[in-house]
Amino acid sequence: MSLLEVNNLSVIYEPRGAEPTYAVRNASFSLERGEFVGLVGESGSGKSTLGFAVTRLAKAPARISEGTILFDGRDIASMDEEELRKQRQGGFAMVLQSGMNALNPVRSIRKHFGDIFAAHDHVPTSKRLARAYDLVEKVELPRDVLDRFPGELSGGMRQRVSIALALSLEPQLMVFDEPTTALDVLVQHAVMGTIRELQKSENFTALLISHDLGVVLESTSRVMVMSEGVIVEDGTSQQILHAPQHEYTQMLLGHYADPRAEVVEVPGLVVRGLTISSTGLGSALDAVSPKTGEVTAAPSAPARRRPGRPEVAAIVVDDVTKVYPRPRRGSDPVTAVDHVSFTLDQGQSMALVGASGSGKSTIAKLITGVERPTSGTILFGETRVDTLRGKGLRGLRQEVQMVFQDPYSALNPLHTVEYALMRPVLNHTGLRGAAARTRVLELLDTVGLTPVEQFAAKLPHQLSGGQRQRVVIARALACDPQVIIADEPVSMLDVSLRAGVLALLDGLRVTFGVSMLYITHDLLSARLVTDQIMVLNQGRVVESGQTAQVLRFPQDPYTMELLEAIPQPHRAGAGR
Amino acid sequence: MWYPLRKLGLLLLTAWAAITLNFLLPRLMPGTPADAAIAKLAQNGPVDPATRAAIEAQLGVPTGDVWSQYVQYLGNVSRLDFGVSYTFFPQSVSSLVLNALPWTLVMVGLVTIVAFVLGTLLGVLAAWKRGTWLDTLPTLGGTFTSAFPYFWTALLLVFFLGYTLKWFPTSGAYGLEATPNLSLAFIGDALGHAWLPAVTILVTSVGGWILGMRNNMINTLGDDYVTFAEANGLRTHTVAIKYAARNAILPNLTGFGLALGGVVGGSLLVEQVFNYPGVGYLLFNAVTNQDFPLMQALFLMITISILLANFLVDILYGLLDPRTRR
C-alpha cells in the first residue's frame, strides 16, 4: 500500500464577492514509502495549494471540493480537527516556503520544541531536552541555538530549525514547500544538501515543492510537473530530464543552461544581436580555443555610440570603500565595500555577482549618490558623484537609473502605467502635453508592451510580473539615461518570463548605447547579458574580467563555490 | 539588565528636561505675576505704593540671577512645593493636587486598564472565531459605541440610570454629607458614585481596543509561524494565545501606554460632566480662574505621568518582545 494516495483531488478558491476558481483540478498521484518526489510548477500553477491540501493546511477561501487523500489508508480529507491534530505526530509534517518567518519571534527555540512535545506527549519529559539537542545536531546546528530567539538567527539557521521542528514529530511524510527559495545561493545549496542527507538517514517520504526544476531534479528520484492546476507530467527524474513529454516541461527545461558551458543557450534570447531572434546565440557569444582556455574573440555586438556625449568612460569607480557605523552596541563597524575599483564604458554591461552581504547593492547606492563613499572617488563622465549635492544629484539621476528587484512593489498600485511613465518624462525631459504623451507611448513600444494605447491605460495589478518589470524598465528609460543599474531584475519572475526581460535589457544596450550594471546572484543570467563580470565577496573584488572567461575558467575558490551552488538538472540522480 | 537601565536613564533625562522647560517658559514671558496683578488694578485708577508693596509681598518678586532661581526651583519641586493656589487660597497647590489625584488615578486609571484588558480579550475571541456571532457582535458593537460622543453617552447614562431609574447618584465622588475616610461605608458610597463615569469611559473606549486587537490578531493568524504551529499539531489554545495573540498584542501596547499617560490629563471632560473632584476638575478650575501656580504644577504632573506611563510600557515591551532588548 502506498503511504499517500491522492485520488481525483480538486481544490477550489472561493473568495467573497468574486468568481470561484479551481487551483487544483483532478489531481491523482501516490507516494511510496521512502520515496523522494518533486512537484514543480511556476507561480499560480497550484503546486503550493496541492501541498497545503495534502497536509490539510488549506484555509478559507481554499476548500477541498472533491476527491480523497488516503494517508496510510485513512482518508484525511474528511478528518475532524482534533483527530487531524493528533495525526500530525508520526504522520505528515510540513516545512514552509518562508521558513525564516515560520518561527514565533517572541519564543525561544527551546520553547518551540517544548510546545511540540507538550502537544503530542510522544517523548517522555525527562528525555525531551536530549531529543531537542539530538534534533538540532541533525540539522547541523550548535546546541546553543536552543537558547536563542528566532530574530538572533540567520535565515539559513531558521530554516534548519524549522526542519528540526518538523522532524521532531517523527513524520512518515515531509512536505517541503520551496524550502530554500528565500535563502542566499550558497546557503540554499547547503540546506538542500542537509535535506537530502536527512531523507536518506531518517528514511521519511519527502515531497519537494519548488519552482526550480534544477533544484528538484538534483534531489529527487521522481518529478511531477504542474501547470494551471493540473499535473501534466509524472515520471522519474531521468525521464523528465532526457525525454520530457509535455511541452510545458520542455519549456521549463529549456531555460536551464550551465553558465560554465562553451555555448549557453536559452530560448527566445539572443544576447548579441541587434534584433531578438531565437538562433545564433552561442556561437556569437565567445570563441574559445579549448586548449589554452583563452577567450579569443570579442564577445558582444558593438553598441551604438550615443550622439552628443563625450567619449569618456560612463562610470569610473576608483578605490572606493564604504564603512557603515556599528549596527548596534558592542559590534564592529561593517565594511560593506572594500577598496573596489572598476570602469564601466559606454554601451558596456558589467555583472556584479556575489552572495547577499557581498556589497553589490551598496555599490549601486554609491553610484546613484544615495550613499557616499567613506574613501575613494566615483566619476560619472567628468562629474564627481561622491561629492554631489542637491541640483547636481538631480542631474545625475537623469543619467543613472535603477531597475529594482521586485516589480510588484516598484509601481504605485493606484496609478496607471501612463501616469507612472509620465512623471519622469515631465520631470526630466521638459516635454509637455501631446509631446510628452507621444514619448510615453514610444517608451511602451520600446519595451515591447503593445498595443501601447491599451497598456498605457492599465493599472499595475492588471499586468503580469514580466509586464510590470517592463514598465519599470520603461520608466528607467524615460529620461534617456546613460547608465541603468538593474538590481536582480528577473529574480522574482517565473522562469518562462525571465528570458524576455533579459533580452530586452540587452537590446537596450545595443540599440541605445546604454551602459548596464547588472547586479545578481544568478550566474546564468550574468553570462547571458553581460560582457564583464566582477565577483564580490564581503565587499572585496575577488575576481573580475570577461564574463565568459571568468565563469568558464574561474580562478578564485569563491567563484567556484558560487558556480557549484547552481542547481544542475544534469546532475539528476548522481547522488543516489 | 542593560535595557531597563537605559530606559530609566531616558526617563530621568526627559523628566529633567520637562521640569526645566516648566521653569523657563514663564520666565520667557515679560513681567512678573505681581506686575500683571498691579496692571489689572491700575485700569481702575492709580495704585499707591503701599498696595504695590502688599501685592509684591503676596505674589513674590524674583530675586537673584536665573541660576539661583533655577536651583531654588529644583529644590522646591523635589519637596513638592509648588506654592499657594490663587483660587483656593490659603490651600497649597500640592495639597490640592494630592487630594484630587487618588480620585482620578483610581477611577479613570482602573477603568482604562479594565477597558484595555476587556477589549483585548474580546478582540482575540472575535479574530479566533472570525465570521461567527462572537466576531460580529463585539466588532459591530465596538464600532457603534466608540462612535458615540463622550458627553452624549454621559448625558444618556445620567438621564436613564441616574435620573429616571435612580440607580446611581449623578454627580460628585461621594455623598454631600460624607467626609473622605477609609470606612467601609464611605468606600461603598464612593464606589456607587464612580459607576456612572466609569461605565461612560468604558463604553466609549473599549470599542477601539476590540477593533485594534481583532485586526492585529487576524494579521498574525495569517503569519507563517501560526500556520507552522498548526502544521506541527500544537494544541489549539497554544496556537491562539502563545503564538497569535502574544504577537498581536505588541503594537497595541503603545496605544495602551498613551492611554495610561492620558489618564491624569485627559479626564477633564469626564470629571467636568460628573463634577468628579479629580485632577481634570482641578485643572478646569485652575484654567478658568487663571490660577497660575496650580496650572504649572498640574501641567508638570501631566507631563511626568505620560513619561512614567511610557517608561512602564517600554519595560513591558522589553519583557514581552525579545527583539527590543538588544
UniProtKB/TrEMBL annotation, chain A:
Tagged with keyword ATP-binding: yes
Lineage: superkingdom: Bacteria
Keywords for the protein's UniProt record, in alphabetical order: ATP-binding, Nucleotide-binding, Transport
GO MF annotations, alphabetized: ATP binding; ATP hydrolysis activity
InterPro entries named among the record's database cross-references: AAA+_ATPase (IPR003593), ABC_transp_ATP-bind (IPR050319), ABC_transporter-like_ATP-bd (IPR003439), ABC_transporter-like_CS (IPR017871), Oligopep_ABC_C (IPR013563), P-loop_NTPase (IPR027417)
Gene3D superfamilies: P-loop containing nucleotide triphosphate hydrolases
GO BP terms in the entry: peptide transport; transmembrane transport
Chain ranges of the ABC transporter domain: 4-253, 315-563
Xref: PROSITE patterns: ABC_TRANSPORTER_1, ABC_TRANSPORTER_2
SUPFAM superfamilies: P-loop containing nucleoside triphosphate hydrolases (SSF52540)
Protein name: ABC transporter ATP-binding protein
TrEMBL record, chain B:
Entry keyword annotation includes Ion transport: no
Record's keyword terms, sorted: Membrane, Transmembrane, Transmembrane helix, Transport
Subcellular compartments: Cell membrane; Membrane
Domain ABC transmembrane type-1: 101-313
Matching Pfam families: BPD_transp_1 (PF00528)
Domain of life the protein comes from: Bacteria
Record's protein name: Peptide ABC transporter permease
Organism: Cryobacterium zongtaii
